[in-house]
Request: fold
Amino acid sequence: MIKNKENIYFVKALETGYVVLGDIQKFYGYTLFLYKMHKNELFDLEFEFRKKFLHEMTIVSNAVFNVFNCEKINYELLGNGDSHLHWHLFPRRKGDLGNYGINGKGPVWWLPYELMYSDKYVVGLDELEKMKSVLSLEIDKLLGK
Reply:
């Protein structure tokens, strides 16, 4: 979809991966960093390219942190459902789990599925374009462009 310019959540391409906003924004600023080629494990990557991939993921997470006003970033690289290297970057804020977790704290997957993926967290096209723009500009800034 990215290569065909059909993914409305696509933000920008970096050397090793694609930056994409999540289609559900329960955690406002939720972003993915998708590896450009198909690999299943970090250890499958050639050493220098792996360093570059991790460095770019760090730049993206720093940009997410800076523009989406969060207190913490949670990082996930799972691959059980979609066996392809991709990072989930979850901006976290105090109280974002509500009554779930331990005193409202814990991983995002402690939320019930229907709450985490509720349609009420889909942002409109105007908001989506604004989010993409500020994130793209911040990534460029952090990359020195």
The CA atoms of residues 99 and 105 lie 9 Å apart. The helical segments are 47-67, 113-116, 125-142. The radius of gyration is 15 Å. The longest strand covers residues 86-92.
